[in-house]
Amino acid sequence: MRHFILLAALTASGFLRAQTITEYRYWINDDQATLATASIGPAAAVQLNAILALPALTKDFNTITIQFKDSNGEYSAPQTAWFTKNSGAVNGYQYWIDDAIGNSTSGTIGPNNTVNLIADLPTGTTGGTHFFTIRFSSANGGWSVPLTTQFDFFNSVEELTGVNDLLLFPNPVTNELGLRLNAAEASTLKLQILDVSGAIVRDLSTWSVVGTTYRNWDISDLASGTYLLRMSDGGGSWSTRFVKP
Questions:
Q1: For a 10 Å CB count at each end of the chain, is N or C smaller?
Q2: For the chain, first and last CA: distance in Å?
Q3: Distance CA 204, CA 239 (A)
């Protein structure tokens, strides 16, 4: 399990009255005794994986904090990220809804595999917005930092006859918009994405549904903002809001 860090040093203007980037410094786990400094050009990239001078690490998961210095001698705001060292390959995961870690679900996974969690998320929950938290285990017995996102769940959709247990995951959504629902009878849904003014910005075409089914749409190229997902079946129409950060 590895976390790769790539930080680019760019020419800054208007931020702390910066000129050009000339130097960077970093330290590990908030310990100033690990401070390391190096020079860098204004258009260069810092590949920390190759040059990290790491102290002896006793934890599976650690932090690195980095700052850049400009030609005026001013340092940028510190940026901190997690990384792992010698934790071994990913071999499992565990997730839970809201804070109910006692009701968590676990599974196994290989280091190059993908888990489609929208197919497995439980439906026995109340309607509304919920939190989904997941963490990954390693071959050496450590756990990753838990990652949390939100999703929306609707027990029923009165405007669409026979549609219930509708799950919009995640929300906010960065790359792929996932939708799962249960349809009591076979039907064809038309899906569109609208902006807040009501203009259609993406036609997701039609989706034939029956029973419990799910689907993902790539919306990574949508601009940041608030949108409506509209679904219609010829007899009714229903919309819900989602955010693209």
A1: C
A2: 27
A3: 14
